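Protein modeling request. Please complete all fields; requests missing the sequence field cannot be processed.
Requester role: graduate student
Desired output: 3D structure, token encoding
Chains: 1
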Amino acid sequence: MQAASSETAEGYPTHQEWVASPAAQQVVGAINRAVEDRFGNPDQVTARDQLARGLVGTALDHTTQTVVVVVDPDRVDQNQLRQRLQRVAADGHSQSGGRLPELRVDVRAGCSSAEDLLRAESVLSSRSWHPRAATASYPYYLDASDSRYRVAFGEKDRAVAEALRQALGHRVTVTIAPTPGSAVQATGRLDDPPPHWGGAGIHAPGDESLLCTSGFTVVQNGPAGKAGSVTAGHCFGPGVPISSGSHDYGVVATSFNDASRDMAFITSTPAHPTTYDHFIYVDPGPPDVRNVVGRSDPPLNSSVCISGVITRAKCGITVTSLSGGTACDATACTTGLAIGSRPGVVIAQPGDSGAPIYLRTANDGAIIRGMNIGAPAGFPPTGFIAFHRVTQIEAGLGVTVSTG
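Delivered output (404 residues):
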């Protein structure tokens, strides 16, 4: 559902312009709310619950410039839902006096039934289709554009990947990618001095082989209000001292890697004193740095950017699900993750875990949307990320994003 295009100055593909403007996003937001009214709010029900009610997902058809809601016609009255959503889109256009665009919206039948897809998800979540499946690392989500689970593995898990392809057949698209190289540019990201910024390369002292990315500066809730940074929980356990190149980055105070949280809070200690500030690296830019001016969860079908230390800043990523993503490693599978997709483009790789997900704003600002958790290896380009929304991070760690 994608047309060929070049990239705009704002960093998103020109074929997204019909839906990327603030005015278009108002209409898309109204459509999203109507879908949530029918199938459940993703903050209150799981993607599996929505699927059981007949919702495969939503997609953007850039060729026809249509917002598409994909359903199981055995569980959903397509015509009734189509008429309702078309009224919502028309009302938005009419009430604005023509200020808002007249977006197309359609309801289409999925290529697989909800029952088939629920069985496939059970195979993925059980992690028992191969002897090594329970220790493999892989992100996955249900792609509404073709009603298939998109799953990505590294070369070391090739046997696990092939076994999954055999087990699920047409219900899955499996990508196997070789392990990418390490960062090739010794930018400020890889040797970030205090006050520390998000988007920096961080590692345990003396072990740069395990490289992750800092997310953004936060402040603990409560009277102490201690500042620090966040990253993915699978990167480091509690009590681990963290460095960025030659600079002390603090100590992991709290870390979670379980079914609902993959997140960690890093902060200064008497033994590892340091400071943090509300900026994120976004090279290759321009600019190379952005000031964090706000935070909010991304709307469905909106566009976001990511800035990891390996792949660096990439934009034009469409949020295709707010809670349907899962990221698995040897410790756990974290569910309820949002999904960002830009097919055919490498938007993140191993080492970009913890990277900030953000929206560009005027005057070199950024609104934090979330934090990257899972991304496939880079080649061939699989073009998707699984990430925690910013409200999940704030609630899960008891912190608030620091803004300036």
